[in-house]
Amino acid sequence: MLFSPFEIIKIAWKIYTENFKLFVRVTVWGLLPAIALAVVALANQLLGVAFYNYGLLLYLAFSALSAIILIWIQLVLLRLVNGSVTHQTINLKETKSLAWHDIVSYFWVSVLTSIVVALGFLAFIIPGVIFGIWFAFGTTIFALYHVKGRAALSQSKALVTGRWWKVFWRVVIPYGLYVLAIAGATILIELALGAPNGFKELQTYTGPWWSSIAEAIPSLLFLPLGSAVLVTVLHDLEAHKNESPAIPTPPTP
User: Fold this and answer.
1) Non-local CB neighbours of 185 within 8 Å, separated by 6+ positions
2) Which letter does DSSP use for residue 29 in this model?
3) Which of 31, 127, 165, 228 is most buried (most C-beta within 10 Å)?
4) Mind telling me which residue stretches traverse the membrane in this protein (predicted)?
């Protein structure tokens, strides 16, 4: 029998707390582009129109850098979590180095997933949700097994087929709590940083210059939990892939 959603949360939390220091050594790198974006926002606020064109270019450059670093972080985290789940010793230095070579392939699997899910939502909301669960493990499968492109998506769909509703609740409930935790932490940080000046910056159209940092800290802090959920559910599905489904998969859109 598959782990219940709350068992998955418990397992993911155990992985998170036992490896917290190790995870922070990876996720902390995500603060660099966030700090750079905050500096650009501050310069734009202080210098105004004179800095606008430069600020826009720098913003785009640091946003692209942020996306690359986040992919790298996700790759490393998934492999570290997998080592914890499978009780394998993972060399952090080697894992971090190898992850740089896999960024493009991970990105491609992510793009394919996004395109398919987006097309599903354009056709109708329900197909989009179905596709989202079918292909939820595509990037994780690539990170752990180096299965690339459409093959990763096909393998993800094969694991979910016949157990769609079971997988749905085992992904949505942990991730729902995960998103709420990030949102709550972000609000608390913004309130703490906005209090000294009476929350005036929070009321502006562009928002405070430090917003990128306030948003990055909780997202990076809880990111390993999301990775732990995906890896835990993936291995659980693999361990029970011959199990007869009690609830049928939704009809193909």
Assistant:
1) 217, 218, 221, 222
2) G
3) 228
4) 22-44, 56-82, 103-123, 129-147, 167-189, 209-234
Residue range 25-36, pLDDT digits in tens: 999 999 999 998
| Nearest-angstrom CA–CA distance, 236 and 221 | 25
Q: What angle do CA 163, 164, 168 make, to 5 degrees?
A: 120
Looking up tokens 């990030």, which residue turns up?
A: 182
- Please report where in the chains the tokens 């998934």 appear, as a residue: 78
Give the distance from CA 109 to its chain's centroid: 14
247: Cβ–Cβ under 8 A, 6 or more apart, which residues?
163, 164, 165, 166
Tokens representing 18 are 């036992």
Contact 74, 67 (CB under 8 A): no
At 199, list the tokens: 């929350």
Rounded to the nearest angstrom, the gap between the alpha carbon of residue 142 and the centroid of all alpha carbons in its chain is: 15
Residue 10 tokens read as 């418990």
Structure tokens at 70: 């986040």
Q: 116-134 as b/e, with b when 16 or more CB fall inside 10 Å? A: bbeebeeeeeebbbbbbbb
Tokens read off for 111: 């793009």
List pLDDT tens digits, range 74-128: 999 999 999 999 999 899 999 999 999 999 999 999 999 999 999 988 877 788 8
- 153: number of CA atoms within 13 Å, CB side? 18
Other C-beta atoms lying within 10 Å of the C-beta of residue 233: 26
Instruction: Report the C-alpha gap between 149 and 112 in whole angstroms.
Output: 7
Which contiguous run of DSSP H or E holds residue 63?
helix 49-86
Could you give the CA distance from residue 27 to residue 170 in angstroms, rounded to a whole number? Answer: 25
